Amino acid sequence: MDAARSWAGAVAVGRGRIVYVGPDTVPPELIGPHTAVIDLRGGMLLPGFQDAHVHLIDGGVDLGDCDLNQTENAAAVAAGVRACAGGHPQEPWIRGAGWQLPYYRGGNPRKELLDSLVPDRPAFLWAADGHSAWANTRALARAGITRETPDPTDGRIERDPHTREPTGTLRESAADLVARVLPARSDAELSAGLDRAQQLALSFGITTVFDADAKEPELRGYTAADRAGRLRLRVVAAMDGSGSGDTMLARLRGWQVRFTTPNVHPTAVKLFQDGVIEARTAALLRPYLDRAGDAGLPIRDQAALNAVTRVLDREGFQIHVHAIGDRAIRMTLDALEQAAVANGPRDRRPGIAHLELVDPADIPRFRRLGVVANFQARWVNGDEYLTTMTEPALGDARSRWLYPMESVARTGAVLAGGSDWSVSSLNPLEAIEVGITHREPGDTVTPPWNPAERVDLPTMLAMYTINAAWAMHQERETGSIEVGKRADLIVLDRDLFALPAGRIHEAKVLRTLYEGRTVYLRDAE
Questions:
Q1: Distances (CA, A) of 326 to 354, 363, 521
Q2: N or C terminus of the chain: which is more exposed, having fewer CB within 10 Å?
């Protein structure tokens, strides 16, 4: 994954760095009496994968709650919730995540159903996308949410059309009304969550992550693990960018001082500019077809977005923005452009994540402005989120510009790959396959969804290696197999270039090395 996309037959590692890359044999003088010599037996060596948008600790904590991510329908969700409640009778709350919006009419599960599953205590379950939540009657009461409660800024309490009573589904900031009365996570829960998530990441060959929304508990969890010698991957963190002005800056600076360690780098700031299309909270340039006159609202107006972007950029933070609708994306590009003009030249590398609906007029701007296009390729699979909850609300003409990865790549912009786990699978090989096929992993029959925006294998590999490293200011140290770089390496059991695209997900990571140390070995499982 160097600039020339070279191939080699042998690599040598010493003191945590790559010391030789060449043909099929390593020079004998590099092999001492204690050197481990590993024959790949037809496998493939790659740079360690890098996930450029993930919620690692949060996802690991979710695995210890009522984990609904593998459920396939509403009945499975109900069975999972019932089992969680029955298996944890002493827990004051039943909390969890992972239900899918398409399982319920309008993406709107009812509190009465959750009451029947958890009748004796509050229950609160995040949707898989993290932009909706489902609460039972006891949880709504604990939060003081009634028919008289107004929708909060940037959020919506779904209501019965006849009684106006809350249905139990909460969108965006409305979910925070319940989330803020939940018991705080303990340091032990955060530690256990990181351990679970880190082991899973290493098993998928991930050696560097970009935590896309790190608040103080997550930052504390990462640095505590690093100081205790338990962190076995690299973390670049985008700190929570809520608030404004000097108070926000003081908090961010304080976090940088307290939470920077050799393997934890809180150098970026995360901003949200809209929600998601399936919940009709993404900000669009034209209205949703099924919501008369409603195009969704941006979280900040242009003046406020310009102001916070300009200040963060002036202070040297890397800016990372959640923007899904075409209006939110355009506003973000406008804000990043004015910040660059106001503050003058520097090595910024701002990024916009998700990029679901991009107006074609804005596609060339990523390259021109040096903005990283951070795509979640696992989502371009033609699932129900796209076919039943997104495309009907946009129409054919706009749906053509959903996830325009190939169009953005063609301009020469930098594309980086991220999972947004636990929203979708943490396995980069699944995302790499879907980015190429535009089908679910292993599906070789269904017509590709939006086939004009498929990309090739070299593009997808770059997104998860050297491009992701560049997006995180790590490209001089990681992201490719070159002499002098850190030995973050993975061994796959087969050559991805020799596989049909629809079988890439079948490849397995056999070994993961972080700075030359084996941190995952499949044979040891």
A1: 11, 11, 43
A2: C
For residue range 370-412, list pLDDT tens digits in order: 999 999 999 999 999 999 999 999 999 999 999 999 999 999 9
The reply to whether 93-179 and 187-512 are identical in fold is: no
Question: What CATH number was assigned to the domain covering residues 93-179?
Answer: 3.10.310.70
Residue 41 CA to residue 413 CA, distance in Å, equals: 36
Q: Which residue has the tokens 């009365």?
A: 181
What residue type is assigned to position 247 of the chain? T
Q: What is the dihedral of CA 178, 183, 187, 190, to 10 degrees?
A: -40
DSSP state of 6: -
> Strand pairing partners for 238?
268
Q: What is the dihedral of CA 379, 383, 386, 389, to 10 degrees?
A: -130
Residue 14 contacts residue 35 (beta carbons within 8 Å): no
Instruction: Answer yes or no: are the C-beta atoms of 152 and 116 closer than 8 Å.
Output: no
Partners of residue 13 on adjacent β-strands:
18
Hey, what are 479's tokens? Answer: 């992201």
Write the single-letter amino acid at 362.
Answer: D
Task: Tell me if 468 sits within 8 A of 457, measured CB to CB.
Answer: no
* pLDDT tens per residue, range 281-290: 999 999 999 9
Half-sphere exposure of 488 (CA within 13 A, CB side): 27
- Positive/negative CA dihedral, 28, 29, 34, 38: negative
Dist CA 305 CA 312 (whole Å) = 11
Provide the token pair at 507: 């490849």
Let me know how long the chain is.
525
Cα atoms in the Cβ-side hemisphere of radius 13 Å centred on 392? 10
Global confidence as pTM: 0.94
Top CATH class, 187-512: alpha beta
- Residue boundaries of the structural domains of the chain: 93-179, 187-512
